[in-house]
Amino acid sequence: DFAFAYYQRGYDTDYIVMQQINAQYYPTVIHEYVHFLIRNSGIVDIPVWLNEGLADFYSTMQPMGKKVQVGSFIPGRLVQLREKPLSIETLLSVDHKSPAYNEKDRAGTFYAMSWLLVHMLSMSAEYRDKFPQFLQAIVTTKPPTKAFEDVYEKTPKRVESELLKYARSERITVALFDVKLEKAAESPVIEPADPFEVEINQARLLAVNPQH
Q: What is the pTM of this model?
């Protein structure tokens, strides 16, 4: 109910469902598209915090001339963190059934901490070099607490302390990537969908996920 958009895998296709097409929701669309990429990457199981953190991290993607910038801070997330942060143990243990993930008044803090942790791991000088190694450890189903200890030689409590300090940073690091888009991607052809096709896809969505 509190989502502007969501990703849903269907029987023979994938969907990103939006409340409306509006520029302010584009970061949310990118967020959901990252879920699609992760789901189709062959990774069987990925922690919820890492899945949502990566999706939020890349949702900040924006063009900068002939480059794409990723990693700018999300102000709203920082506000949520300052109110009542989760403990690192709670964050790492959240699954799709957890109240911290499903309840409207708690989910904001979970998303904020997931995003900030991924940002610190991928952008900070102290963590970024070993982030690919950490991801590999997670993908091979190693528990996150064990992955932190093996890869970074740090306890979860140490990571939590550094994460809260990172939230108060006055300067951040972002990433810039060179891009070369095809003309079809720069100026896509957009046409209204056939009404019958719209109804068919709505029926398919309800069939795979009745709660929506």
A: 0.83
